[in-house]
Amino acid sequence: MSGNSIGKLFVVTTFGESHGMAIGCVVDGCPPGLQLDKADIQPDLDRRRPGQSRFTTARSEDDKVEILSGVFEGRTTGTPIALLIRNTDQRSRDYSRIKNLFRPGHADFTYQRKYGIRDYRGGGRSSSRETAARVAAGAIARKYLKQRFGVQIAGYVAKLGPISADHIDWDEIGRNPFFFPDASKIPELERYLDSLRIAGDSVGARVNVVARGVPAGLGEPVFDRLDADIAHALMSINAVRGVELGDGFACVEQTGSQHRDEIEQTSFRSNRAGGTLGGISSGQDILASIALKPTSSIRIPGKTIDVDGKPATIETYGRHDPCVGIRAVPIAEAMVALVLLDHALRDRAQNAEVPRPPQAM
Amino acid sequence: MSGNSIGKLFVVTTFGESHGMAIGCVVDGCPPGLQLDKADIQPDLDRRRPGQSRFTTARSEDDKVEILSGVFEGRTTGTPIALLIRNTDQRSRDYSRIKNLFRPGHADFTYQRKYGIRDYRGGGRSSSRETAARVAAGAIARKYLKQRFGVQIAGYVAKLGPISADHIDWDEIGRNPFFFPDASKIPELERYLDSLRIAGDSVGARVNVVARGVPAGLGEPVFDRLDADIAHALMSINAVRGVELGDGFACVEQTGSQHRDEIEQTSFRSNRAGGTLGGISSGQDILASIALKPTSSIRIPGKTIDVDGKPATIETYGRHDPCVGIRAVPIAEAMVALVLLDHALRDRAQNAEVPRPPQAM
Amino acid sequence: MSGNSIGKLFVVTTFGESHGMAIGCVVDGCPPGLQLDKADIQPDLDRRRPGQSRFTTARSEDDKVEILSGVFEGRTTGTPIALLIRNTDQRSRDYSRIKNLFRPGHADFTYQRKYGIRDYRGGGRSSSRETAARVAAGAIARKYLKQRFGVQIAGYVAKLGPISADHIDWDEIGRNPFFFPDASKIPELERYLDSLRIAGDSVGARVNVVARGVPAGLGEPVFDRLDADIAHALMSINAVRGVELGDGFACVEQTGSQHRDEIEQTSFRSNRAGGTLGGISSGQDILASIALKPTSSIRIPGKTIDVDGKPATIETYGRHDPCVGIRAVPIAEAMVALVLLDHALRDRAQNAEVPRPPQAM
Amino acid sequence: MSGNSIGKLFVVTTFGESHGMAIGCVVDGCPPGLQLDKADIQPDLDRRRPGQSRFTTARSEDDKVEILSGVFEGRTTGTPIALLIRNTDQRSRDYSRIKNLFRPGHADFTYQRKYGIRDYRGGGRSSSRETAARVAAGAIARKYLKQRFGVQIAGYVAKLGPISADHIDWDEIGRNPFFFPDASKIPELERYLDSLRIAGDSVGARVNVVARGVPAGLGEPVFDRLDADIAHALMSINAVRGVELGDGFACVEQTGSQHRDEIEQTSFRSNRAGGTLGGISSGQDILASIALKPTSSIRIPGKTIDVDGKPATIETYGRHDPCVGIRAVPIAEAMVALVLLDHALRDRAQNAEVPRPPQAM
What we know:
Four copies of one chain form a homotetramer.
Chain A: E1 5-6, E2 11-15, E3 22-28, H1 38-48, E4 65-67, E5 71-72, E6 75-76, E7 81-86, H2 93-96, H3 108-115, H4 131-149, E8 152-160, E9 163-164, H5 186-199, E10 205-212, H6 226-235, E11 240-245, H7 256-259, E12 276-277, E13 280-281, E14 286-292, E15 302-305, E16 311-314, H8 325-351
Antiparallel strand pairs in A: 1-2, 2-3, 3-7, 4-7, 5-6, 8-9, 8-10, 10-14, 11-14, 12-13, 15-16
């Protein structure tokens, strides 16, 4: 398969460039009979949308989704669902200056090398604009997962540059523009981001995603393990440079007696594993964490070369995030949703006759 | 696809349980004309093999590979290559005691839940014995990558529990039984592992993999990005709990001006990205790092339940590693090789007509 | 994968129902650098379009294609190409009468059984309207195949009901509305189709497709043989009930001495095989032939049941073809193009280093 | 995917050449808990095995299957099942004469062209010996289909050269060595085949396959329609040149009023469709028919070229079938079984919540 599809049974194929006519996706394999309306999708798109505070990018896209197929009288038909989002605010003039430069830290150089041609406007296909299509598809998956299994998926910014959340208040996440779960740190965050904007720089972030209510038994070892597919899906998000499940890199220094999650009669005593054992969900919360690099689209000039290989200096103006990690939260949630639903269907295909107790552990 | 295949064009399907008759794999899509002999595969299997020092497991398998198909007069034919490794030292009696228990930290519980049946001997399919088949397949990929592209892949233990390698001596890696690149730390390592064996415990590790000579242009955005596929492949290795590319989680606190790899005329000035931009290789070294959890097969008793849900205590005897991370080195190298070759073929399929300069950067 | 994608490297995913907002497709894996414009696609859509003579359906769709992505400054970028065709003439009122009936010979019954829900307007997803999206994608494949390999694909109606073409005049095919290659039979054809319309009945057809200039070496045995994939692609067209390669069912009575295509120095002496040997193209013309059943949407009443299982009579009015086989010609050509290009890329992936003589045989 | 796997959820990957060490397959995705033993597989292999009468090939292979993995205590575990069949009677000397020739009608020429290398002994990978692995995998699928759904699959030779079966006696099929259902024609068949052997020639055949008890709802439109996937699977069998579903090519001359299968309260009135509507099973018998070409391995000399392009004459001696169609019967049954099970699992994955009435129609 060419690389623009994800999933084996719930398959999402995205298309579209930052400055093309539209972005969108086709969702193939959605179970029939699910009530579906644009109103199920738009809120997640709005959460992801730029232009929501002075701290994120200034590009103002409405990101209004249209459902072109696959839904009849308000219910999915089991046929492909095509979602379309027209690009409305493209401002091509912002990019003509850098048409002949390779912006360091961006994919300009590699796309040009690979394809011999690239749509340089706004990063073309490599732009994170494409992730809007993923979020739209993820909304469908989330709805089905919630209705059918009671699965809930929530993400938050655990660390923004040097500033960590010290405790998790789930209600706080939706109350500030940073998806940050610790209200006491918000003023510090705002000051820090303001200073970055003034300096023309950016910073990285760590985003956590938790999935609750995941039934035990999901995952297709040995290669399509649930944790491996989650890692794949999360690493496919622009700017991600690391993925952890459960205790992640903290495992390196743990002993076996410390690490293993002992089992009691009705539950596990801990969740260092992060929700999977041997690549299959255990019924515990899925705990994933990703590292996002700082965006390279900053005002501080940097050294690069042009398309002819000559030295050049680059600085970007226009509409950029000082911290792309913030907007990654709904994208990461969507990717986890896509993987979980795909695996729920795969597990059902092969193992529907295996008696499963109600979700106790 | 069921989850026992990896790759889209260079497809490896593994089979086999720890205590079954044999393990093996089918490699479908190997280019024809490659000289191939068991002697190309056996060394990597020997590197992985247990029983090579007092510090690793005592199970003594010869792991002799047979080539059943796909090779004629010493060259690959382009048809599927089946590799077989007979199990010779299975000692089922070691596991009958734990037949009715779910060993915490292992996949017993999840396999039983998923399939309703499990081969409890040695972990069955969930055992890391299965990785011998991956290493065998990886040897084929490595040979082709080396001959055709000059790609070299090397891994090492960067950190074993609390003990870090302070510098990398590539020649040292093959001289000690730990794949450890810092000779000055070897005595400390040996003492530490001895103490773990006496205590009946285990510890985690960090393993790094470096791939050199990777041509620019590999990777299939937006989902099958090279970094995402590498993350998937590495996370599919038993005991892996985290994956980083380039600076990984260190990116969280980096600013954009620090992180981006500026481009000079003939090369990049740094490699924080870890070898990919926008999910496509840049020609720089691919730098990946994984976290391996400590094995849960330890002699220290732990709390668990039996198959009827009653409380029980577990302690395992027999042949186990105090640090599985050591043996993960050749497995991680093999997985990276499989991904790189698969992507080399995918890139060639679509972009063979794009003029590519010789590998300069 | 859910079943709405075809191809492994040149992957086409279609979406859309007969009476939904739009139909379309995403083409993923098109090589970059191909000049592409709507004008490359529209002619094939026009050939397929209904309403072109009194002998085909009266539904008048413009079938104007829009390119939403994957093309920049007139050339393909290697990223997904989304094609959209808005439905403009849907006339839902034609179908409300049959909302609760299962039209015999149609997919109403099976879609309802499978999904528990169906868009009954015009057959929904099962309508042959969906094939417009395939023809659009096929036009891209045809252009690339022609430019890169000199491949030419042409189809024609070989038999319409009882009326056979006695000789093939390639220039005649485009001159009449039946894709019929024998001018001497046209008056007879017209009279016959008029009589069917008056009787309110329909008839089947045989369509042949010839592909010239196909390089030797395409096909991925043992399952993805070129002939098997062509059979799959053609059988996926609505109304197809049989597929033959080369001499097809005439082989049953042939002896080996009659059937085999002997090889002379520069060519084969015959082409009973139809262009493949062992599932791989030989360089000879690919000769495929399909049988299309008569449409079941006719005015003659038929016995059926309603959605509650009660007996009912059905007759359909509105806009229907007396012979769907006529319109299958451009669809069959498109399907063959998709398969050939997918295989050209797959062959290139694995075997690009095998020296290939120029296309002599 | 490289082309040696078939299926999306019940995936079979075969390997092995005619004169290699072994042939075999890996079956990935078998539901767990199925009782499975070699005795479930061997009978179908014996039905396919050469050397069972003076009318089929003289190569005497035992075709003893070994199960290497995926079964524990007599039940499938849900993990990959590897099946191995050692080659025991290879007689390489039969083929050294033709090492440098391209046998007309065989895949020698195309394999050499595609891969630049071929195992010339017995046709290597292109030999129908490979189909033993398919039959072995098919036996597993058949068992599951029978137990879970009550599906029965049976094939027979409908026509051998000029000799047709005039009526179908299901019990007769297993009583003669030709899978022929009309006892009255057996003496004529024997005389005809004897005459072919004496003449050193061969003839084609038509084989029918019927699948009963197939639940309605199987098939994944629009591309992975059940009929399209059956056509693909059957056309992938060596020597197949045509596939028909239902009335097949007879549809060409049928009118709509003749063709459509009207629906009565409890059943369909006919089955011209052959068991599917819109690519989805209707609950009616699946009726497929294939045309097999006569083998080109005959004693009558033929014109060809050698590997250097010089004219040559070829005649083959040794162990060949005068009618390969006879042995295609169990292979065709196996292929239909693989497709039906794969589709049963795919349908279950997406549509398990759709209420399905008991199999009435």
